[in-house]
Write a structure and sequence with these properties.
- This protein has 2 domains: 24-223, Rossmann fold (3-Layer(aba) Sandwich), CATH 3.40.50.1170; 237-347, Rossmann fold (3-Layer(aba) Sandwich).
- It contains 11 helices and 16 strands.
- It has helices spanning 2-21, 53-58, 63-66, 84-99, 115-125, 148-160, 249-256, 274-285, 309-312, 322-333, 339-348, and strands at residues 24-31, 37-38, 46-47, 68-77, 105-109, 132-135, 169-173, 176-179, 184-185, 194-195, 203-206, 209-212, 237-241, 261-266, 289-294, 315-316.
- An 8-stranded mixed sheet has the order 4-1-5-6-7-8-11-12, sandwiched between helices. Strands 13-14-15-16 form a 4-stranded parallel sheet, with helices on both faces.
- Helix 6 (148-160) links the parallel strand 6 and strand 7.
- The protein starts with a helix and ends with a helix.
- It comes from Campylobacter pinnipediorum subsp. caledonicus.
- GO terms for molecular function: asparaginase activity.
- This is L-asparagine amidohydrolase.
């Protein structure tokens, strides 16, 4: 009896030690398809943001074996509804948990529509080198072969992997790891939608087995020029998409509504239609920062190509897509309105 009791106590002690040694990962839920549900396994229609963080966690019990999991509901919306208020709330909470030492890593469940923008925003404003992992799903929780549970399992494994430290924010989807600056959604429905067109993925995660092959080198997190503690609001920056037989109406509307910056998503190497070019120039003359970008989807928008950027006072986006360029310009405008300083920010972040 005594021996049996001692054995039970010993096992309980080992279990307690093992539990104590596990890393702590906070899962911050914002909604999206991963938290969505539909009427049936073969019904493509569904509603985003109907499943709570507790149910997301309970659907993947395996993550409790590798980490102490804590969940918080930041929002519960489709990511097409993502807004500045949720961004600021989310970034502040991520920063607080990591800087105060309450979490060893963060996993954020998020809709795929704007995941790349949220990831890049966090990448620029959170001041910690601890892992921050964005994850979502292309098939809702009621769907046949729902991809959310395995994506979440993989995301937690990435968050506890020591090699994830210092990588900045990453996106984990479909067994791949992508850097926040580089990743974009490329397909409306495919589970392999997330790609990094200019650089490729930085790693893989296969049933929890994490491998890295590359490091992001642009400024992020600890080395970024931005700090969420100093950001209370974000200025208005609009994206204007170019096309044949274009007109300046949307540029003029943006200027009329006091946009502080405009991202011109031009044709080819960022080339706007002539009337749009002139309207953008009018904006520059009135203190609006104009960044030339491209609608193409990959490649660098080069300075002084067909457009004389020096003459018009434009800056270019490097190889950021328009939605990422908008995020960076909003943050840059919280620090300065100096065009040359903002151009340097685009060269380094």
């Amino acid at each position: 009896m005594k021996f049996g009791l001692k054995k039970v106590v010993f096992v309980m002690l080992l279990s307690a030690i093992a539990s104590f040694a596990k890393p702590t990962v906070y899962i911050l839920a914002t909604g999206g398809t991963i938290a969505g549900s539909g009427s049936g396994a073969l019904d493509s229609s569904y509603t985003s943001g109907t499943v709570t963080v507790d149910k997301l966690i309970s659907a993947v019990p395996e993550i409790n074996k590798i980490a102490t999991i804590k969940g918080e509901q930041i929002s519960n919306i489709g990511s097409q509804e993502m807004n500045n208020e949720v961004w600021l709330k989310l970034a502040s909470r991520v920063n607080e948990l990591l800087v105060n030492g309450n979490a060893d890593g963060i996993v954020i469940t998020h809709g795929t529509d704007t995941m790349e923008e949220t990831a890049y925003f966090l990448n620029l404003v959170v001041k910690s080198d601890k892992p921050i992992v964005m994850v979502g799903a292309m098939r809702n929780s009621s769907s046949l072969s729902a991809d959310g549970p395995l994506n979440l399992f993989n995301a937690v494994n990435v968050a506890i992997d020591k090699n994830s430290i210092g990588k900045g924010v990453v996106v984990v989807m479909n067994d791949e790891i992508h850097a926040a600056r580089e990743v974009t959604k490329t397909n409306t429905t495919s589970v392999s939608t997330f790609k990094s067109p200019n650089s490729g993925k930085i790693g893989t995660v296969f049933y929890g087995k994490v491998k890295y092959y590359m490091n992001p080198i642009r400024k992020h997190t600890l080395n970024s020029d931005f700090d969420i503690a100093n950001i209370k609001e974000l200025p208005r920056v609009d994206i204007i998409y170019s096309h044949t037989n274009d007109n300046a109406d949307f540029v003029n509307t943006a200027l009329k509504n006091n946009a502080k910056g405009i991202i011109s998503s031009g044709m080819g190497n960022g080339n706007p239609y002539p009337s749009v070019l002139n309207a953008l120039f009018d904006g520059v003359k009135n203190g609006v920062i104009v960044v030339r970008d491209s609608r193409v989807g990959s490649g660098e928008t080069t300075l002084n190509g067909e457009v004389d950027d020096d003459k018009y006072g434009f800056i270019t986006s490097d190889n950021l897509n328009a939605q990422k360029a908008r995020v960076l310009l909003m943050l840059a405008l919280t620090k300065t309105n100096d065009k040359d300083k903002i151009a340097k920010i685009f060269e380094t972040h």
